[in-house]
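Record type: ASSEMBLY
Status: queued
Input:
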Amino acid sequence: TQLLEQSPQFLSIQEGENLTVYCNSSSVFSSLQWYRQEPGEGPVLLVTVVTGGEVKKLKRLTFQFGDARKDSSLHITAAQPGDTGLYLCAAIQGAQKLVFGQGTRLTINP
Amino acid sequence: DAGITQSPRHKVTETGTPVTLRCHQTENHRYMYWYRQDPGHGLRLIHYSYGVKDTDKGEVSDGYSVSRSKTEDFLLTLESATSSQTSVYFCAISPPGGLFGANVLTFGAGSRLTVL
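Status: finished
Output:
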């Protein structure tokens, strides 16, 4: 059983469209992170959200932490081919251990 | 991948042979981790270390052992590799605490292991 469920697992859209991916859990977390991974490389941290209801923006990417701190979303506006990659959410489970969702593989077609 | 390197980057081996993957960091971070990544499962924690000779198990530790004799090196060993251990293995490092108590992981580029 996955502690963090990401949806959709795969998403392929055209350049310029908007999209949202989700990270859900039945557990409450003190914080949640989003990573992006490109082929042949390790994941790279995009953002950490800590407060319930928090919204953070990173250029065209908007991250939101649910009010109950059980879920999060990543919204991309006007997607570009450079946004293509695997997006992973992660949350703290116990001391100093991160648990990851299974990821959303995003493809932006020119 | 600044400050963290994994070796080998690619390895093909046969079932039953021992395999050791190495993670080397130059950041002097206390915490080091080994994850495996498989389609549909995301990243799963194998073992982690919170200091020299201090290690603990993650969620998928069966069949794996680790050692950390120096701050900079964290070794992952498969004593007798099986086909189910075919995967991409990632090492990560983090300083203690981090922002708001959350870990900030820096990952290596990965080691792709194929067990035939």
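Annotation: The two ends of chain A are 36 Å apart (CA to CA).
Annotation: Chain A has a mean pLDDT of 92.
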